[in-house]
Amino acid sequence: MSTVVRPALSLILLMTLITGAVYPLVVTGIAQVAFPEQANGSLVRDDQGQVRGSALIAQSFKGDAWFQSRPSAADYATVASGASNLAPSNPALATRVGEAAAEQYVEGQGPVPLALLTTSGSGLDPHLPPAAVAYQVARVAAARQISAEALQGLVEQSTLHPMVGPPVVNVLALNTALEQVAPLKK
User: Fold this and answer.
1) pTM of the predicted protein model
2) Is the keyword Transmembrane assigned to this protein (predicted)?
3) Structure confidence by residue, pLDDT tens digits, 69-85
């Protein structure tokens, strides 16, 4: 019996060491050398070097002076990320979308873009379609006391054109650039 158990336990310990320690350390080391920015979370820092967020994770911005991210079912918490899983027939979804539409609505600009009303599958999508950002330009320009044309130019500079998929705007990157161009008056 010990001729079978001893090699089995040795193999379990060896594979645990390889797959639980050696492999993760090697992959982490390679990632740190080859892709240090991505391996460390694609962090966005301000001029003082303070971390303001990650380019990969949406965050909440409060007030008219900021571009708003799309809603999050998990209140932008990475641990509880995920969709709301509310069916289209669920009255709670209709209520939430209706409230968000009333909050975001701007007179004379037509209906609020769907991306500003619905959550993404992860609840943490940092990107918005350019149309959803353009809908917010007048509000942000008025709050920041800058021209809508200047702000639209900043949005166009911040628009990413991926190889696959439609153009998108990273809201954190846009708000960071906005703060540099037109700082909030305190």
Assistant:
1) 0.77
2) yes
3) 988 877 777 777 777 77
